[in-house]
Design a protein that fits this description.
95 residues; mainly alpha
Length: 95
């Protein structure tokens, strides 16, 4: 019975993220990585892993969101330069 519940939970977890945009995916990935790192870090130093996971998830989610904003800005700059080259115009910084 436990095996069936574990398989069902894993399947649900994998399909729950299929309709997310890039911002949501990066924020959630950051939260997951941060939670794992926080729980492991506090367990190593004999703290409460739950509080480490909560803190790590918050920091990770914020980091994932900031990383998404950086990647969007990077793509905007690339597209601006690409379009300027395509149209034989000087490149201008995006607004």
């Amino acid at each position: 019975m436990k095996k069936i519940i574990a398989i069902a939970a894993a399947t649900l977890a994998m399909t729950a993220c299929s309709n997310m945009n890039n911002t949501e995916q990066r924020t959630l990935s950051g939260a997951g990585i941060g939670a794992a790192a926080g729980a492991i870090g506090t367990a190593i130093f004999h703290g409460n892993p739950i509080w480490g996971a909560v803190g790590g998830a918050a920091v990770g989610a914020a980091s994932g969101y900031v990383y998404d904003a950086y990647k969007k800005e990077q793509a905007s700059e690339y597209n601006s330069g690409y379009n300027a080259g395509k149209n034989n115009k000087p490149a201008q910084a995006p607004n």
